[in-house]
Amino acid sequence: MNKLLKSCLTALGCVLFGVALIRCKTRQTTDEPKKIAIVVSTLNNPWFVFLAERAQAKAKELGYESKVFDSQNNTAQETDHFENAIASGYNAILFNPTDADGSIINVKNATAAGVPVFCMDREVNANDAATSQILSDSYSGCVSIAKYFVETLNKKGKYVEILGMVGDNNTWNRSKGFHSVVDHYPDLKMVAQQSADFDRNKAMEVLESILQAQPDIDAVFCGNDAMAMGAYQALVASGKADKVKVFGFDGAEDVVLSIQQGKIMATGMQFPEVMAETAANFADAYFKGKRDFPKKMPVAVELVRKDNIENYAAYGKKE
């Protein structure tokens, strides 16, 4: 009996020790710092590099570990990043999608795994997927650009529109905002509209090709600043840079400088720092128990042109 009792007590002791060890490990896991994954569409564009850097800096300031993942404008690569982030125990994802429809499944998979997703700048076409979406008001921003476009061209002339990625809602919101104004002026004629995927080199190639068929254009409206700079390069190469007016959208550093120099007419200044820091702050609030976030939070876009350029720097206002 004594041997049996001793065996039982020993077994019980082992069980209790095991339970205590598990509790200890659980407590250690709970006490570990939260981790935030920052998944961006591409790091081949300085604007998105800035967005990612500001998100990472804010996460660090708030006391969280973070890592930036580059999807290279590829939804399949983006899917790999999401699977990695979930499997590696990241607690939230700050997300700049590659495709408004194609990215929905990645967001839903993350939220199903208990990982909140906060979209930055670009959205997904599902109201019940992301925890919150912090987005530039691209439509209104391009209404302002269009009004200046009409004024600058004296309500007449031929123009080209270079679109961004066709799977990104920003592409169409910007285009629709622009056309909501310009289409009311019948003497302003769009002679070509083509996508260049928000890419500088592609925009240069696209405009070079268009200029062969339409050499006498008066202006180019581009869906982002990278494409505006590519378009300007094409105009320089063709000897038309002083005759054709170029308009962009973003507030990137090289376009801010080009507006100062009179090379680019105007841009729509987005505020990536506001979007990135808001997303990080939302993740912080989520970790602390908050759940009622706005499904969509618009961030205003401001028209930047030569007569107000002194108020702006790259990616925002001067401090």
UniProtKB/TrEMBL annotation:
This is D-ribose ABC transporter substrate-binding protein. It comes from Dyadobacter luteus. GO terms for molecular function: carbohydrate binding. Belongs to the bacterial solute-binding protein 2 family. It is found in: Cell envelope. Its main location: other. One of its GO terms (cellular component) is cell envelope. The keyword Cytoplasm does not apply. InterPro entries: Peripla_BP_I, SBP_2_dom. Keywords: Signal. Residues 36-290 form the Periplasmic binding protein domain.
